Amino acid sequence: MSKYDRVYNFSAGPSMLPLEVIEDVAANLCNYKGTGESVMEMSHRSKEFQQIIDDAEANLRKLINIPDNYKVLFLQGGGTTQFSMVPLNLLRKSKKADYIVTGQWAKKAYKEATKFGDIKLVASSEEDTYSYIPEVKKDQFRTDADYAYICTNNTIYGTHYPYVPDTGDVPLVADMSSCFLSEEIDVSKYGIIWAGAQKNVAPAGVTIVIIRDDLVGFADEKCPVYLDYKIHVDKGSMYNTPPCFSIYVAGEVFKYLLKIGGIKEMHERDVRKAGKLYDYIDSSSMFKGTVRKEDRSLMNVTFVTGDEALDKKFIAEAKEQGMINLAGHRSVGGMRASIYNAMPEDGVDALIAFMKKFEAENK
Ligand SMILES: *Cc1c(COP(=O)(O)O)cnc(C)c1O
């Protein structure tokens, strides 16, 4: 097995981090760069931590070319809190918002928004177990909607938007939790991009929010203070104690990505890894992919054998081989291999080799 007997962890999140980053964090764990303290113990008001968060933001801006009129926030509360923050802050004129529901997370976001305004379900692929991304045209969005909402990568089902919906002048909000930093994006096409870190960026605890500055400052005065984007914009994500350690590790991951050649290089690696796995699935007579090919995710690869008992056997035997968390989400069953940025190509190769062996032995 690999260094330190680490397994290949195919979990959908929390998930693997680059070993190089973990080693660097470990080397600095007790005494961060000669400060005599750990980042875990460090005051968020210290100049050392201010440097950590400033560098994290600067490096993220560089990685994905965030325009100057966008703010970057590092918040707590996970993706689930964003489901509430988005409507609480963006339902500012007509109180209308338009949602595309392509999976459980988008559906949760949609349901949460219905508490606060006139919410239209523009399209949904629920009737087909979210196995595809609906094609939505500009005229399906209400021109007076305060925003439109999508989830670009559907972690549970293994789909990814092959296009950015054209919403005209209506700001597009995107939950990118499970594909953030896996592909180049044009930030200027979005009003808000947000991503929980525990899928592709850092340990759980921090949620990254990128928000166009003209969308800040519209929360109702009754809005709970933490849920108002403006508070966090005004205070540089330090209105209260931020998730310091997760922000630090996120920053180290950003540095690592810049070092290897940025998102372009990362994306090429992701395409190669996912491509191999899908190619094998498509050639296999035992394993079948569960989603429409054009909409396949590079991050979450879902497949089945068609026989539940065989799926269980596969998952159990893979675990014995040091490949863990291959079970599909509890709501859908089957298998899901989450192969985020930090999954080494060797891990995908090992999985494919094991699948071939399993197929041969269980004909
Ligand atoms: C995991 C996930 C969420 C939920 O995140 P929490 O931090 O657990 O609230 C939301 N959206 C997507 C796409 C996810 O993968």
Automatic annotation (TrEMBL):
SUPFAM superfamilies: PLP-dependent transferases (SSF53383). Pathway: Amino-acid biosynthesis; L-serine biosynthesis; L-serine from 3-phospho-D-glycerate: step 2/3. Its EC number is 2.6.1.52. GO terms for cellular component: cytoplasm. Pyridoxal 5'-phosphate binds at residues 79-80, 105, 155, 175, 198, 240-241. The keyword Amino-acid biosynthesis applies. It holds the Pfam family Aminotran_5. It is found in: Cytoplasm. Keywords: Amino-acid biosynthesis, Aminotransferase, Cytoplasm, Pyridoxal phosphate, Serine biosynthesis, Transferase. It catalyses: 4-(phosphooxy)-L-threonine + 2-oxoglutarate = (R)-3-hydroxy-2-oxo-4-phosphooxybutanoate + L-glutamate; O-phospho-L-serine + 2-oxoglutarate = 3-phosphooxypyruvate + L-glutamate. Residues 7-351 form the Aminotransferase class V domain. InterPro entries: Aminotrans_V_dom, Aminotrans_V_PyrdxlP_BS, Pser_aminoTfrase, PyrdxlP-dep_Trfase, PyrdxlP-dep_Trfase_major, PyrdxlP-dep_Trfase_small. The modification N6-(pyridoxal phosphate)lysine is found at residue 199. L-glutamate binds at residue 45. GO terms for biological process: L-serine biosynthetic process. Binds 1 pyridoxal phosphate per subunit. One of its GO terms (molecular function) is pyridoxal phosphate binding. Homodimer. Catalyzes the reversible conversion of 3-phosphohydroxypyruvate to phosphoserine and of 3-hydroxy-2-oxo-4-phosphonooxybutanoate to phosphohydroxythreonine. Belongs to the class-V pyridoxal-phosphate-dependent aminotransferase family. SerC subfamily. This is Phosphoserine aminotransferase. It comes from Aminicella lysinilytica.
